[in-house]
Amino acid sequence: MSTKDRKQALMAHLKAEVLTCGLPAGADLDEAALSNAFDLSRTPVREVLRDLEAQGYVALRENRGAAVADLSPAKLRDFFLAAPMIYAAILRLAARNATAKQIIALEDAQEAFRAALRKGSAADKALTNVRFHEVTGEMAGNAYLLPSFGRLLIDHARIGVTFYQPRSETMVSNLATASDQHDQIIAAIRDADEERAAELAIAHWDLSRGVMEIFVMPDGLQGSLGQTTSA
Amino acid sequence: MSTKDRKQALMAHLKAEVLTCGLPAGADLDEAALSNAFDLSRTPVREVLRDLEAQGYVALRENRGAAVADLSPAKLRDFFLAAPMIYAAILRLAARNATAKQIIALEDAQEAFRAALRKGSAADKALTNVRFHEVTGEMAGNAYLLPSFGRLLIDHARIGVTFYQPRSETMVSNLATASDQHDQIIAAIRDADEERAAELAIAHWDLSRGVMEIFVMPDGLQGSLGQTTSA
DNA sequence: GCTTCCCAAATTGTATACAACATGTATTCA
DNA sequence: TGAATACATGTTGTATACAATTTGGGAAGC
């Protein structure tokens, strides 16, 4: 296994851990630990961390190492503002530009997502969902939109981790709806129907927004004031 | 002068050179040369180059060093597609969120731009113009839009270098119009008039588009077919 | 004369040693 | 007892040495 492979393995590992909140927002990353865990010297490890910072996965603090990018309320607000516009633009361009090979890749991604829904872990669901949207980004292929889209996908996945651990009937049905929307998105792209693709982007994102609202504003706990027992 | 300062100097130098096309698109960057020019070892130089890649200034090719990011026709097309949407969103958010201090910074940037128009070099004009728009980006302050906006600004500056070396009456008048639009943008932001700010974004960008069309499709050369003398 | 292959030189990528900085602890003095 | 400072420890940033890969030129073969 060459150093290049180990470097890519480190990259993939950290990406997956961040996306699935295996490494929660704000978690410190130790260069030395990563070095010997992946059998690399600190130099390439630091390069990987810089790359991940560029893509929005981690934050580097001067003389104080790397940490998983945080998700402050202010950042969530930014997310809600930017996501619909960017996503609609991405799907519109995807419908305009997708190649036959890319459409097959999208169908494959959707198949993997469905498989994860049936029998995968929460992490599998989050990662396969991200993969589906990444393919739409590749279809759009706009060098100026992709950096923003990538960052949206990262935090979309992290917020949605709750989504993929369905605790309520509503969430189970939301997951099924999301999968259906993926199918409709594929159809719109195959038909090169830009308007429909843009509409579906908004709809798909509205669904996620509902989930996120549950995440931010969960149902109040049962019980009277003064009760302090847990379970 | 500490190493940190020299590192920042290298960063600033390369950014300015790329923005003003002192280093043209595609130009190779030599790590070793930069190292002893700025009295740094190759390690921090490489880190700077990676940062610049993340921001869209340069491209790193596997085992073949860094080069100034190119400006292919395909990328220009991406630019024309994404710029109006992103820029309108940025100015809309700027009008919504700008603080008093930021408005002063924007006025200062505009003053510097005007000064450059009067008696600055083409590079000064390009850099002060970029600075003006960077301030609007800071005002918008949206973590998801800024990466895209930054890349647009880089290539906007590079395409516009021709713009800031006015060779024709049309271009001189365009420059004056651009400056006027900056003033109107400041006013819209000060009034927190989002709609007006978004309109001005489109108008300001349409002006630039005209310049770029001249850039891409200049007037045909005079002279008959078969002439081969130059000057 | 042209192509192909191989080697040398240069450049990029990695490892390690060293320097600078930050953090936590213990000791000392008020 | 409390606070402040000095020091020890660990972590980050930089320099340099080394390995691997690319590139250009020259010699050999067709």
The structure class of chain A reads mainly alpha
As for the CATH topology of the largest domain in chain A, it is Four Helix Bundle (Hemerythrin (Met), subunit A)
Give the chain pair forming the largest contact, with residue counts: A-B, 28 and 28 residues
Strand order of the largest sheet of chain A: 1-3-2
Oligomer: homodimer
Characterise the protein shown here.
The structure is a homodimer of 231-residue chains. Chain A has 231 residues and is mainly α. Chain A has nine helices and three strands; from the N terminus they run αβααββαααααα. In chain A, strands 1-3-2 form a three-stranded antiparallel sheet. In chain A, a hairpin with a 3-residue loop joins strand 2 (58-61) and strand 3. In chain A, helix 4 (73-97) crosses helix 7 (146-160), helix 4 packs antiparallel against helix 9 and helix 8 packs antiparallel against helix 9 (194-216). Chain A binds a DNA duplex (30 and 30 nucleotides) through residues 3-4, 30-32, 40-44, 46-47, 62-65.
